Amino acid sequence: MTWKDEFINLSQPADGRVAPAFKPHHAAVALILIGREQPLGRYDLCGKMSIGEGSVRTLLKRFAEANYIEPEGKQGQKLTTKGTKLFEAISKEIPISLSLNIRSLVMYEHAYTSLVKRKASKVTDGVRQRDEAIIQGGYGKAGATTLVQKSVRLVMPPDDFHILLEYETETLLIIESLKPEDGDAVVIGSADDPNLAREVAMASVMTLFNEG
């Protein structure tokens, strides 16, 4: 079972009930946030996500039932050994994810960039990633831009546009911050809400990974 499968399973309806409001990409974002900032409290996690408090509470309950997290006193939640293994599996393939000020390169105010190792071959024209961001974030609210590192150049598919020629400052910031290597992909989620930008970035990234 892949790390993507783990988050899909966590987001399934329980015992024939209505499916939870959160999706697999929300679960992935939440676990990464806990892994990076542990211990992390529920209210702090709510402030970093676009889903409601009730959904975050349900998500944390699912994490606990699956033995991915455990409380650390009153400070919040931390990863268990099992949760740490899942966090490390994601981090191996998506080692760097962060907000960058690259406004002129994206459609919305906030941009969240993710380095995806060795997935350039999975990118065709970037439409699949853009569409996933729109589906999950809402039409007119979110989008995604996908780049690939190819022959020591960061280019935009499908015509391998060398973005350094038109967006020099933004491109150099991406290269300096993410340090992509040949064969890597860079997925940028964007939205006017920074939390939503982070979430649609993950939703778009997950399209590059197979299930099972």
Describe the protein in words:
- By secondary structure, the chain is of the alpha+beta class.
- It has two domains: 3-91, Winged helix-like DNA-binding domain superfamily/Winged helix DNA-binding domain (Arc Repressor Mutant, subunit A, Orthogonal Bundle), CATH 1.10.10; 94-206, 2-Layer Sandwich (Gyrase A, domain 2).
- The protein is built from eight helices and eight strands, in the order ααααββαββαβββαβα.
- The longest helix has 14 residues, at 24-37.
- The termini are close together.
- The model has no long low-confidence stretch (mean pLDDT 95).
Quick overview:
This protein has 212 residues and is an alpha+beta fold. It has helices at 3-10, 24-37, 42-46, 53-65, 81-93, 127-137, 168-178, 194-206, and strands at 69-71, 77-79, 96-100, 110-116, 142-150, 153-156, 161-162, 185-191.
State the main characteristics.
212 residues, Arc Repressor Mutant, subunit A, alpha+beta, Gyrase A, domain 2, six-stranded antiparallel sheet
Order of helices and strands: HHHHEEHEEHEEEHEH
User: What is the CATH domain class of the largest domain?
Assistant: Alpha Beta
Radius of gyration, in angstroms, nearest whole number: 17 Å
Oligomeric state of the chains present here: single chain
CATH fold-level label of the largest domain: Gyrase A, domain 2
Q: What value does the average pLDDT take?
A: 95
What would CATH call the architecture of the largest domain?
2-Layer Sandwich
Give the structural class: alpha+beta
Unreliable segments of 5+ consecutive residues: none
Broad shape: globular
- Got a strand count? 8
- Beta-strand percentage range: 15-25%
First CA to last CA: what distance?
A: 5 Å
Number of helices: 8
What is the CATH H-level superfamily of the largest domain?
A: GAD-like domain
Domain unit count: 2
Portion of residues within helices:
40-55%
Adjacency order of strands in the biggest sheet: 3-4-8-5-6-7
Main beta sheet strand tally, sense and closure: 6 strands, antiparallel
